[in-house]
Amino acid sequence: MRPSSLEAVVGQGRVHVQGDHTRVEIAGREEALRVAELCVATRTTWCAGNAPGRALSLDLRPAGKIMDLWREDLVLRVGAGATPARLDAELEPFGLCLPLELPMPDQFTLGACFSRAENGLSAPAAGGLRERCLGLLAVDGRARLAKAGARVVKNVAGYDLARLHHGAHGAFGVVLDFLLRVESRPERKLLLSWPCAHDAIASGLEARRAPRASVEPLQQLWFDPAASLAVGGPAEGMLVLHHQGWESSVRRWSVELAGDEVPAALPRDWGYANAQAGQGIFRITCAPRVWFLHWPRWRRALGEAGCGPQLLVDLLGGRHRLLLSNVDAARSFFEELLASGARWVGAPIDPGAQAIALRLKRSFDPHDLLPPLPHR
Prior knowledge:
By secondary structure, the chain is an alpha+beta fold. The protein has 14 helices and 18 strands. It has helices spanning 3-10, 29-42, 84-91, 110-115, 123-126, 129-132, 161-164, 200-205, 225-230, 247-258, 272-276, 288-304, 331-339, 351-364; strands at residues 15-18, 21-25, 46-48, 56-59, 66-70, 75-79, 96-97, 133-139, 145-149, 174-181, 183-184, 188-195, 215-223, 238-245, 280-285, 310-314, 319-324, 343-344. A hairpin with a 4-residue loop joins strand 16 (310-314) and strand 17 (319-324). Helix 1 (3-10) runs antiparallel to helix 2 (29-42). The longest helix is centred in the last third of the chain and has 17 residues, at 288-304. The protein starts with a helix and ends in a 12-residue tail after the last helix.
């Protein structure tokens, strides 16, 4: 496709060509629809963001802003190109927030997080992006606008097409905007950490839970020694508690925990993002008995494969996150996980579900212009 054809749609200065790849800045849904029509007419592969193997990508960040806000219903419509950090800044004057607690909130857009099924660390307590999405607007591989959901609670009759796009990596279409459920902004958030060995988790966690309903947990994480050192924590491991609530309740609770009027709190950019940068992340869900039985052997196997395993335990969600420095070398290891009774987010899709997904893919994208379905 010629850049001049794209400039006729979006204007000059917003089409960027780098070798065989073209990036187009999109300022609204009408421009996205017209660019999609050009891609379909010329059989040009396209996507949102930086999906590999596509000739053209849509940069939705210029349109990433709040379009509508129904403050009394705690619902908003926002462009998929908005970053969580930008959305949080726009919601602050209204006393609202979207409590996702995503790593690196100023770098990844809401559309990218939704397509990759990254729901944030607060998902077990406050609900993730998938649960907070009431609807969306997307353009599919036939250059058709598809609207799903509405701003009421009971808004789906039949299939929930909004959740079809969750974790699909843009295979069914490019999401242009979301309808999201927000909540009132808490007076204060507190992030505390303690040195904590592995044996101390079960015995010490109950004593550190917030005793009052006005103090709500967002995250309760445990870092093994390797992961703790990677984020600048103590060598024996680290327990991190992230809570929110009324100012007086959070302060009183923090004093009870830390024994100090001004407890040593971690900053908001406390280093978890640095631990994730450049590493493969696998979320594993299994019974504690299975985990503690197999983890020493799994650690040795990953170490011998050169994966540099670090362990992060989500105590609220019951999930174990592995931070791996060499993902390719760990593929054979996860076959062992399936045989041991654990479930992990990268497990192969059920054949029946895969067949249904392929039929939907042919319906939404008959020319295979959008990214392929994720195999894992």
